[in-house]
Amino acid sequence: MGKPESPQKSSVERSQSTNSISSLLKNRFKKNQQDDNKQLKSPQTDIAETPEQDGNNSQTTEEQDLTLEQYRSQIKEQSGTSQEDLSHAQDGFLNRWGLWGQEQQSSWSSWIGTFGRQTATQSHTNAASNVAESEVRGWWGWPWSAAANENSKDQASLRTREDERVKAAVDQLSVLGPQIQRTTSWAFETHYGNKGGELSIFGTATSNSPVHCESLPKTQYENQEASIDKLEETFSDVVPDISYNYRDLTRRTKLRLLLSKICPVPLVPPEMHLYHDPTFNEPLLGKTETKKALIISIHGFLPFKMIKSLIGQPTGSATIMTEKITDCLREWGRNHGVNMDIETISMDGSGRILERVNSCLFLLLDNWLDSILNCDYLFVASHSQTVPVAIHVISRLITAGYIDNIEKAGLINISGVCLGPYKGLDSKLSVRAYTPFENDVLMELFDFQDDETVQSKELARHIEILLRKNVKLTFVGSMDDQFVPLYSSMCAHLNHPNIYRCVYLKNNTPEFLRQLVTLVMIVRNLNYDDHELLVEINSYLQGTLGAGSHGNIITNKNVYRVGIANILETSNPVAHHRLNVKPINVKKFCFNQYHLPWCLRGFLQEVLKLRSFPTRELLQNLFDAYRQWDPQSKQHKDLKYIIEVLGKSPIGELCMD
């Protein structure tokens, strides 16, 4: 892994240090810092005491019913500052939020530390030794026996105080919900095979002093989403498979890649994609090695009214993702002779993206930095709006040097809003239906549709930091997602050998669409151009309310199997590759049905360039599947009509070798 470059720091990055997270926690703000009058109420306040806010009373918009799109435009017109100035001001605000309350937390730690588990364990050891000594001394040991009794009383008192802390933390977590109009985050750390785990809640006394809980209670966020529908476990396919998309890395291929790297004249084709490691084709019988794996799952809750009106199903939780990826990782270890020592950190919450980054990075993860430093494999799973959160967090860990010694690291990004939600959804959201805090959360998602916003630029910059460190990125999306389009979850505007794309398909997906989407993913994974076919075709694939797969996708184990295989079974790039960014401004993009046939023709030409694939056979199967396709929905009928040329023209007329 090469040393990261040092690009010019942006407004969002000015608040982070390149040394370590601990140093960030210990630093104090300068007294002459600006905007002191905008400091928030101390997050040390008990969450249970936070008053519930009425969205209608706190709303400051005009009497007329504005849509979210109109509200965003109005804010831009009224604001006299530029995007960079806004990001700089927000950066100072976020820093205060992420590091707010250190004085209070240090005062908490001064007396809570006396009731810690280490002190209790030490007291227990001393008490046991004193009792043993008293038994040896006989009747004359009564003074030592009295001391042992005192230690036993202290130990019981410590257990009582620890139980009170646990009960307080559980109560604080159970009341977390939409009524708390600020960013919330909490983490639950467990070891596979152990009962219970450590709970840390941002903004409480457990932020830097986790408590041990037997189980994790459900929050009001989860209870609200459960009232919509039940999250169903699915067993559908995720295509394409790693071993099918990437051919095995042979000695001849290694020699060619080395020559392409050192030869100044391009005599051989350069490296365009990764390869499958052939050592993983067969199980390693009789050989077992132990690897320490750390799984970090990050999930976020969106405003409930939006989920109910646009998604129509629960979005799950970080615990669900943790359980699925843990099972898949243990399964992979059994098949390949690797004994996995698994530790998991489930991080959940709600709020603005960058505030979630600061709370997750500066306080919650700081409790388990030793686990990050000592692991062999690092897996990070995220869903929907937390995909940018996960990318930012791991990027800053790389900058601080915390994953330098990790053998393999990768992210599994599920239905991420890399290019925002579907175009036009913001015009369906009324500003008056949401509180100002919820409007800010929603507007931030739609800012990813514009490639000129700070959010979009920072996302691309942090992804480049990950790729320079040889972190493998797996983008998984659902073809019938009702909230996030496929080109957004696939991060279609970025190209790099370390990026792998795959699609979750329901069992009832038409065969033509299955073959077409699979071919598009193969072409993109091998670093060829799809001629924007993925962007143009997606308007005909959007799922319906409640019937899409935006939430159910996280219950499918095949999603995590593909991500694990991409992280552990693929080769490393021989040469350094820069991130190729092809800007896509969804807000300005003109979706035209007459563009689709030409995009399809250009894509078919790219398919013929594939090596080690029976391209003519694949195209013939695609044409045959189109002729047999009998669409039922209006969207699919329109799509078949637009690309009717596939049924009337032979392959030779559309594709020229």
From TrEMBL:
<dbReference type="Pfam" id="PF26147">
    <property type="entry name" value="AB_HYDROLASE_YMC0-YMC35"/>
</dbReference>
<feature type="domain" description="YMC020W-like alpha/beta hydrolase">
    <location>
        <begin position="288"/>
        <end position="606"/>
    </location>
</feature>
<protein>
    <recommendedName>
        <fullName>YMC020W-like alpha/beta hydrolase domain-containing protein</fullName>
    </recommendedName>
</protein>
<dbReference type="InterPro" id="IPR058933">
    <property type="entry name" value="YMC020W-like_ab_hydrolase"/>
</dbReference>
<feature type="region of interest" description="Disordered">
    <location>
        <begin position="1"/>
        <end position="65"/>
    </location>
</feature>
<feature type="compositionally biased region" description="Polar residues">
    <location>
        <begin position="7"/>
        <end position="25"/>
    </location>
</feature>
<dbReference type="InterPro" id="IPR058934">
    <property type="entry name" value="YMC020W-like"/>
</dbReference>
<feature type="compositionally biased region" description="Polar residues">
    <location>
        <begin position="40"/>
        <end position="61"/>
    </location>
</feature>
